[in-house]
Structures are given as structure tokens and as C-alpha cells.
């Protein structure tokens, strides 16, 4: 039996990137995002705050980061989710965490680690409204290559979709007609033939690809490279 108790998120100016951070932390700690718990509630709050103009899509207000701590009690686990020093949710589970639902990373024998595919899906939250550009397509291709260990683009895969979107966007004259990162990456894990936990080398490869294909030789602060780098840092911190 599972139960989640949420803190008062409505009063906080939760930003989309805050929600993405908690989603990645839940995937890392629990193996999946808990329905109705902190990450889901923060995503909902972030959408409302952004629509109301309280925050921007690339804002981050959780300056002290997000954390999830596990406390073992007789017969159950208590998971406490915090933003900075403030508890925003608690999750309890009678059975051991290892017997619960498994993420793609756990199924491959890497329990608790965030995969490249999951990092791409997190980008749909942090930069979902950004039109796909060549730098994004290059970063997504680099991510797909590292996740699948294939050197060529897979037909119908996430990299192929990104390259097609970048080509069409370059010809589009209106921003509303352009394909956004969220359109491409919201179900990235389903479009990958295989997946793997993100590492520092993966992050460096994706970052290099994004920078080389950007006119200013920079990466987007909430884009593909940033998400893969964040996933790699979380994976390293949990080893």
C-alpha cells in the first residue's frame, strides 16, 4: 500500500525546472515518478504559475536543490521529499523499495540511476516550449547514439524526429508553427531501442554536440545537454 502526503506547494512559486529536478530525483531514488506525490504536484503548480505569469519556463527557484531521504521503520519505508529545507511531501511503502515498480534503468540492472532517455524526457519539462534548432537535434542525436550504442540514426527514433523538426523549423516563419522540444521528447524512452544510465562522459559528449552546432557555441541553460549533465551528476552522487 502506498500513500503520499503533500506540503503546501500552492503558496510557493514553483518553476518548471524545479519540478523537473524533483522528477529526476524521484526516478533516481524510487525508480519511477510517484503519481500524486511531490514531482507531479510540483509540475502542476509550475504549469499554473507559468500560465499566470509568476515564473518563466526556464526559471529555477529551488536554489538549494531538492532532496529525497529514506527512513526505515518496522514494516515500511518512509520517503521524505524536500525543496531546500522545506518538506513538500512524504511517501510510505509497506514492501521494500526494491520490490516496487521498476524504471528502465532498474530493469537493465542499474537500480536507482537516471537513464539518458529519462533525462531527455525531463527536457520536455524544462525546455518543452523551445522550438527545435540544429543544436538541439545534434544534442539529441548524440544522446541517442550513447543510449543505444548505435552510430547511425534510427528511422522513427527520437534523433530522426528532432532532425526533421529542425529542418522544418528553419523554414517556418511563425514561432507558433514550429515544432517544440516537448513535442519530440515527451516520450523519448519509448523511441529508444535501448537505454542506459547517464554518465559524465555521456554528458560531455552531448554538451559538445550541442555547443558545436550552436551559432554562439553555447548550450541552452535548460536544454538537452543540461538535463543529461544533471542526470549524470545525480547518478554519480548516489554511487
Write structural notes for this entry.
It is a single chain. The chain is α+β, with helices and mostly antiparallel strands and 239 residues long. The chain has helices at residues 16-30, 38-51, 104-107, 116-126, 134-148, 158-171, 181-185, 188-191, 200-212, 224-237, and strands at residues 2-6, 66-73, 76-83, 86-93. The protein has a four-stranded antiparallel sheet with strand order 1-4-3-2, covered by helices on one side. A hairpin with a 2-residue loop joins β2 and β3 (76-83). It is globular and about 60 Å long. The two termini are 28 Å apart.
Spell out the key features of this protein:
four-stranded antiparallel β-sheet; 10 helices; 239 residues; alpha+beta
* Strand arrangement, major sheet: 1-4-3-2
Please identify the oligomeric state: single chain
Tell me the series of helices and strands, N- to C-terminal.
Answer: EHHEEEHHHHHHHH
Morphology call: globular
| Cα radius of gyration in angstroms | 18 Å
Mean pLDDT: 80
Biggest sheet: strands, sense, closure? 4 strands, antiparallel
Q: Portion of residues in helices? A: 40-55%
Count of helices? 10
Secondary structure: number of strands: 4
Distance between the termini: 28 Å
Strand percentage: 5-15%
Poorly predicted ranges (pLDDT <50, ≥5 residues)? Answer: 95-109
Structural class call reads: alpha+beta
Amino acid at each position: 500500500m502506498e500513500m503520499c502526503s503533500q506540503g503546501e506547494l500552492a503558496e510557493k512559486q514553483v518553476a518548471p525546472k524545479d519540478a523537473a529536478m524533483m522528477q529526476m530525483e524521484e526516478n533516481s531514488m524510487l525508480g519511477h515518478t510517484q503519481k500524486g506525490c511531490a514531482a507531479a504536484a510540483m509540475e502542476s503548480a509550475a504549469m499554473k504559475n507559468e500560465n499566470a505569469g509568476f515564473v518563466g519556463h526556464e526559471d529555477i527557484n529551488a536554489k538549494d536543490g531538492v532532496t529525497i531521504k529514506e527512513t526505515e521503520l518496522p514494516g515500511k519505508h518512509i520517503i521524505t521529499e524536500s525543496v531546500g529545507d522545506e518538506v513538500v511531501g512524504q511517501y510510505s511503502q509497506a514492501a521494500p523499495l526494491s520490490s516496487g515498480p521498476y524504471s528502465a534503468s532498474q530493469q537493465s540492472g542499474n537500480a536507482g540511476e537516471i537513464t539518458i532517455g529519462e533525462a531527455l524526457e525531463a527536457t520536455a519539462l524544462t525546455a518543452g516550449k523551445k522550438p527545435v534548432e540544429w543544436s538541439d537535434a545534434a544534442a539529441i542525436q548524440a544522446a541517442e547514439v550513447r543510449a543505444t550504442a548505435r552510430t547511425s540514426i534510427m528511422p522513427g527514433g527520437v534523433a530522426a524526429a528532432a532532425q526533421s523538426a529542425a529542418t522544418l523549423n528553419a523554414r517556418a516563419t511563425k514561432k507558433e508553427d514550429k515544432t517544440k522540444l516537448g513535442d519530440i521528447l515527451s516520450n523519448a524512452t519509448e523511441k529508444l531501442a535501448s537505454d542506459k544510465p547517464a554518465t559524465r562522459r555521456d554528458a560531455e559528449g552531448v554538451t559538445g554536440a550541442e555547443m558545436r552546432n550552436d551559432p554562439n557555441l553555447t548550450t541552452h541553460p535548460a536544454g538537452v545537454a543540461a538535463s543529461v549533465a544533471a542526470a549524470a551528476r545525480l547518478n554519480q552522487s548516489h554511487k
